[in-house]
């Protein structure tokens, strides 16, 4: 099995080193093509207005001056000697649950693998608090991910689906359960801009998250993180709200209104 690894935290990230160890427990044909610099929050962004540079770090390890999506496109089409059988994206520092999935570069890397018809999995390790001084429990993802991935690969996947794995902010022995979840949604928006002033007296803004405690619905990826469970969520890129399609057909079908 040929395995392609990418991430959005950058080629030097601890989580990518963790993912490489996970992948090598599954296969001896492991390739890493990851962003040169951190690309968190870039979602499915692609680089269109400037050239992409590829830096070969080792025989099967490359850094790209672009996004996770760029990395997977280049890896599949130009870098690897043959098509990968599996794409693993992560392990992200911090979970990717709820609406995070829509702008996560980690999830985007997996989605691009899926777009090529390759089974793809995003992996993220939750944190007690998103701050540089907080050390992630990388050992939790490393202990549990290989067996979960093997079991997922033994199953049939629906077309267009990627698997989103999130590991709780707990040591391995404190994790007691894995749950197949649905994507949740926070009742209160977490994202906001912090206004600051630079040394010349000019205002600037820094995007941030409030981190407010919320009561999330049972069965969601958000609730699983709250409860210290491993979350497995099948995701797909189809954003169509099918119920609305059915309702609107009776209003807007046929000759266009004027």
Descriptive report:
- There is one protein chain.
- 26% of the residues lie in helices and 26% in strands.
- It has 258 residues and is an alpha/beta fold.
- Strand 3 and strand 4 form a beta hairpin.
- Helix 1 (14-24) crosses helix 4 (138-153) and helix 2 runs parallel beside helix 3 (105-115).
- The radius of gyration is 19 Å and the shape is globular.
Helical proportion?
A: 25-40%
Strand residues, percent: 25-35%
Question: pLDDT under 50 segments (min length 5)?
Answer: none
Mean pLDDT: 94
Radius of gyration: 19 Å
**Could you give the count of β-strands?**
11
Order of strands side by side in the largest beta sheet?
A: 3-4-2-1-5-6-7-11-8
Through-space gap between termini: 57 Å
Shape type: globular
Order of helices and strands: EHEEEHEHEHEEEEHEH
Biggest β-sheet: count, sense, barrel? 9 strands, mixed
- Figure out the total of helices: 6
Give the helix/strand class.
alpha/beta
Tell me the layout of helices and strands.
Elements: E1 2-6, H1 14-24, E2 29-35, E3 54-58, E4 61-64, H2 68-79, E5 86-93, H3 105-115, E6 119-125, H4 138-153, E7 161-167, E8 178-180, E9 191-197, E10 203-209, H5 221-226, E11 230-236, H6 242-252
Parallel strand pairs: 1-2, 1-5, 2-4, 5-6, 6-7, 8-11
Antiparallel strand pairs: 3-4, 7-11, 9-10
Helix pairs in contact: 1-4, 2-3
Short key terms for the protein model shown above:
258 residues, alpha/beta, 11 strands
Short note summarizing the structure:
The protein is built from 6 helices and 11 strands.
């Amino acid at each position: 099995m040929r395995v392609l690894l990418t991430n959005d935290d950058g080629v030097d990230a601890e989580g990518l080193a963790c993912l490489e160890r996970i992948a090598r427990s599954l296969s001896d044909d492991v390739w890493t093509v990851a962003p040169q610099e951190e690309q968190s929050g870039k979602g499915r962004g692609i680089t269109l207005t400037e050239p992409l540079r590829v830096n070969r770090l080792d025989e099967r390890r490359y850094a790209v001056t672009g996004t996770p999506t760029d990395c997977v496109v280049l890896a599949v089409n130009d870098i690897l000697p043959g098509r990968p059988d599996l794409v693993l994206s992560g392990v992200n520092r911090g979970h990717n649950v709820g609406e995070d999935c829509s702008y996560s570069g980690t999830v985007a890397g997996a989605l691009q693998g899926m777009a090529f018809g390759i089974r793809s999995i995003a992996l993220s390790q939750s944190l007690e608090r998103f701050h540089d001084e907080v050390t992630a429990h990388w050992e939790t993802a490393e202990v549990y991910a290989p067996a979960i991935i093997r079991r997922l690969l033994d199953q049939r996947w629906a077309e267009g689906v990627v698997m989103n794995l999130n590991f709780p902010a707990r040591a391995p022995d404190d994790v007691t359960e894995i749950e197949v979840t649905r994507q949740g949604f926070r009742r209160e928006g977490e994202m906001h801009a912090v206004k600051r002033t630079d040394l010349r007296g000019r205002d600037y803004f820094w995007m941030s998250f409030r981190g407010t405690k919320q009561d999330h619905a049972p069965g969601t990826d958000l609730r699983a993180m709250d409860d210290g469970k491993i979350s497995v969520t099948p995701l797909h890129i189809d954003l169509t709200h099918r119920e609305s399609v059915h309702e609107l057909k009776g209003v807007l079908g046929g000759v266009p209104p004027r």
